[in-house]
Recover the amino acids of this structure.
């Protein structure tokens, strides 16, 4: 026997408890418009880890229309309140996110930034309990020192697309995005500052604990 990854992905998503109508609408929009949200299983892992460390301050780099933000905001609300920072380049995506997150009841928790995510994090006062990174993949290596600076000791970094649909294994692929993921993975897994696992949910998430 070997594992069929498409079957595995559907199975993992099927284990996530039923979502609200708004969350289901956000998932349907992603399917219809081929928008790369993290999906239910990865979203639930984000929610779970944020609950596990009692996160109250979370910063997201590359937030799209707020699907991952919604999972983090739910965790922060259940943790007793705090703040989630949503950051995107695109003002239209930011507007969409504001609508969704207001409907979900998280308006009071979320701070919105429109701009380049790493620079925005640089300009935002830390420390954070959890940082989520889903920016353009060529930007991953450059983001790591900024993230390390803004995350508290004992905080978590979660970073998406660590498998690039398998393109990281294709040595002939030297695109900036794939090289960015390879370089980032090498940097963080060889650094004594971090305890790192790559969790192969959807497109691979690194979950890294800052010592
Ligand atoms: C794609 C997926 C992502 O999760 C992302 O952050 C960017 C792009 C993609 O499938 O193209
Ligand atoms: Mg992604």
């Amino acid at each position: 026997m070997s594992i069929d990854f498409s079957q595995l992905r559907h199975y993992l998503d099927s284990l996530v408890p039923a979502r609200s109508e708004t969350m289901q609408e956000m998932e349907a929009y992603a399917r219809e418009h081929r928008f790369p949200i993290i999906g239910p299983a990865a979203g639930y892992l984000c929610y779970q880890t944020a609950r596990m460390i009692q996160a109250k301050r979370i910063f997201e780099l590359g937030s799209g229309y707020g699907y991952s933000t919604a999972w983090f905001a739910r965790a922060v609300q259940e943790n007793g309140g705090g703040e989630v920072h949503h950051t995107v380049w695109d003002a239209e995506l930011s507007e969409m996110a504001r609508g969704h997150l207001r409907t979900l009841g998280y308006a009071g928790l979320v701070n919105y930034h429109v701009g380049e995510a790493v620079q925005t994090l640089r300009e935002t006062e830390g420390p954070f309990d959890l940082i989520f990174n889903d920016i353009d993949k060529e930007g991953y290596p450059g983001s790591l020192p900024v993230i390390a600076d803004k995350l508290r000791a004992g905080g978590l970094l979660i970073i998406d697309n660590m498998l690039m649909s398998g393109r990281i294994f294709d040595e002939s692929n030297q695109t900036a995005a794939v090289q960015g993921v390879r370089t980032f993975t090498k940097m963080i897994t060889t650094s004594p500052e971090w305890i790192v696992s790559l969790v192969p949910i959807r497109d691979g998430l690194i979950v890294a604990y800052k010592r």
